[in-house]
């Protein structure tokens, strides 16, 4: 330890007395955040999407059923956004690549589902609705609302995976035992 | 190190969601946490946000505090991690890039101390003006007691990069303080 380091060490406590933070304002912010839990805020985006998506699905499925009720029923072919236009194909490919990267980075399959239950449940809801949408896509391939909702599915999934990444890294930090010293 | 008897009572009261106890705990540590954070993230607004986020986490996770360190050290670890996460978000990943210059300590560095008495207000302000990567290393090593091995793990750099960034920061800091005194 050189004389400079020693001097700083000897006067370490003085370094924490220099500024005057807005103690009252910070406390107000803490109280507000404690009263509005983050998890509720985080889930609002998904629930809005689920509610809106369910309504659109109901309407589209209803129209499809009405217009095809006189035609002999046959099994709908499977279809993706990529089958509609090259631009949508490009967008869908980018989203799928990003999702695959995030899932790989997270090692999603090996994560403890109980520990991150909320995220896995939301991912499951998202997936179920997406499958329902794909079923009505062949009969409604040029329905703009349906296409937008399918694109939003990818965006929401990416956002959920990012939030999960954040939770996992936070958990790792809390578990790390780096400092065991007193102030 | 076990928490003091006074802190044990304070923690128990906080866990019962007693707001007066929470405020007492907050006032006890807010200033130290703020100064630690603002030396890593020099924007006052950002530092205050990070301190706010830190105490929200503290109150939400207080039931997981096991008393293996002091309460202050535990809160400080959360504050430092929250500040590092903020810097990572801003830098989209690494706080120190691998291509950052290597600095090697020379014998001259030891013979270049600013003449005491050193005004600690100037030291605090000068640290805040250091380049980000070396500023974080200096704060963690010199002021918060981290070892280079730990810093290397946290920042995902090598031990030698941590050491060279530290020497760079120290050299720049001494130069800044020397200029100020002339």
Feature tags:
heterodimer; A: 183 residues; mainly alpha; 68% helix; elongated; disordered C terminus; B: 182 residues; Rna Polymerase Sigma Factor, Chain: A; Arc Repressor Mutant, subunit A; 2 domains; globular
Give a verbal description of the structure.
The complex is a heterodimer of chains A (183) and B (182). In chain A, helix 3 runs parallel beside helix 5 (117-136), helix 3 packs antiparallel against helix 6 and helix 5 (117-136) runs antiparallel to helix 6. Chain A is an all-alpha fold. The longest helix of chain A is centred in the last third of the chain and has 32 residues, at 144-175. Chain A is 68% helix and 0% strand. Chain B is mainly α. The chains are: A mainly alpha (183), B mainly alpha (182). Chains A and B meet through helix 1, helix 2 and helix 6 of A and helix 2, helix 3, helix 4, helix 6 and helix 8 of B.
């Amino acid at each position: 330890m050189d004389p400079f380091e020693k001097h700083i060490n000897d006067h370490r406590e003085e370094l924490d007395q220099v500024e005057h933070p807005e103690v009252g304002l910070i406390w107000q912010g803490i109280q507000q955040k404690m009263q509005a839990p983050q998890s509720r805020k985080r889930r609002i985006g998904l629930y809005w999407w689920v509610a809106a998506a369910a309504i659109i699905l109901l309407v589209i499925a209803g129209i499809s059923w009405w217009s095809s009720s006189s035609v002999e029923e046959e099994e709908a072919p499977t279809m993706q956004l990529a089958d509609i236009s090259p631009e949508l194909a490009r967008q869908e490919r980018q989203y799928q690549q990003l999702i695959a990267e995030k899932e790989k980075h997270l090692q999603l399959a090996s994560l403890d589902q109980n520990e991150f239950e909320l995220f896995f449940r939301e991912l499951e809801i998202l997936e179920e609705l997406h499958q329902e949408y794909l079923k009505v896509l062949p009969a409604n391939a040029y329905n703009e609302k349906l296409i937008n909702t399918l694109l939003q599915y990818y965006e929401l999934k990416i956002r959920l995976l990012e939030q999960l990444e954040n939770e996992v890294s936070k958990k790792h930090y809390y578990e790390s035992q780096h400092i065991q010293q007193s102030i | 190190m076990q928490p003091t008897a006074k802190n044990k009572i304070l923690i128990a009261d906080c866990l019962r969601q007693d707001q007066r106890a929470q405020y007492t705990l907050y006032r006890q540590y807010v200033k130290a946490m703020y100064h630690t954070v603002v030396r890593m993230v020099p924007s006052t607004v950002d530092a205050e946000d990070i301190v706010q986020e830190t105490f929200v986490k503290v109150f939400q996770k207080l039931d997981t505090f096991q008393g293996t360190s002091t309460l202050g050290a535990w809160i400080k670890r959360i504050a430092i991690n929250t500040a590092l996460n903020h810097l990572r978000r801003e830098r989209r990943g690494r706080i120190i890039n691998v291509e950052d210059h290597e600095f090697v300590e020379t014998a001259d560095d030891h013979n270049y101390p600013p003449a005491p008495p050193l005004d600690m207000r100037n030291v605090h302000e000068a640290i805040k003006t250091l380049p980000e990567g070396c500023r974080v290393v200096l704060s963690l090593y010199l002021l918060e007691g981290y070892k280079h091995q730990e810093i290397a793990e946290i920042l995902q750099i090598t031990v030698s990069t941590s050491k060279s960034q530290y020497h760079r920061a120290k050299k720049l800091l001494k130069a800044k303080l020397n200029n100020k005194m002339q």
